[in-house]
Amino acid sequence: MSAAGPDLELVVRVDQTRCVGTGHCAASAPDDLALGPNGRAYPTHPTSTARDQLSEAADLCPVEAITVHLARTGEQIAPLD
Ligand code: SF4
């Protein structure tokens, strides 16, 4: 299996009803998160392997709008309590 195999594929979700548009996440994970025209963040790709950046983005979000999941199992890997 390659380094970017299915076990490393992540799905990031943004709850747009929570997002207040600070932009912290887009700064932490600019390849995967951006602010849309409505001022709220959204994922720019269906999946990603940028675990560190996405975990940081989820941890930094002040309103806990971001969750990161393993694509294969759906297990949430960030934020963790
Ligand atoms: S860090 Fe959270 S509140 Fe700020 S733009 Fe990203 S999702 Fe929205």
Highlighted features:
single chain; 3-stranded antiparallel sheet; alpha+beta; 23% strand; 5 strands; 81 residues; binds iron/sulfur cluster; 2 helices; Alpha-Beta Plaits; two-stranded antiparallel ribbon
Order of helices and strands: EHEEHEE
Q: Unreliable segments (pLDDT under 50, ≥5 consecutive)?
A: none
Number of strands: 5
Distance between the termini: 31 Å
What fraction of the residues are assigned to beta strands by DSSP?
15-25%
User: Please, how many helices?
Assistant: 2
**Fraction of residues in helices?**
10-25%
Mean pLDDT: 93
CATH class: Alpha Beta
Q: Please indicate the count of domains.
A: 1
CATH architecture title: 2-Layer Sandwich
Structural class by helix and strand composition: alpha+beta
Structure characterization notes:
With 81 residues, the protein is α+β, with helices and mostly antiparallel strands. The chain contains two helices and five strands. Strands 1-4-5 form a three-stranded antiparallel sheet. A two-stranded antiparallel ribbon has the order 2-3. The mean pLDDT is 93. Strand 4 (66-70) and strand 5 (76-78) form a beta hairpin. It is globular. The chain has helices at residues 24-28, 51-60, and strands at 10-14, 33-35, 41-43, 66-70, 76-78. Iron/sulfur cluster is lined by residues 14, 19-25, 41, 60-63, 65-66.
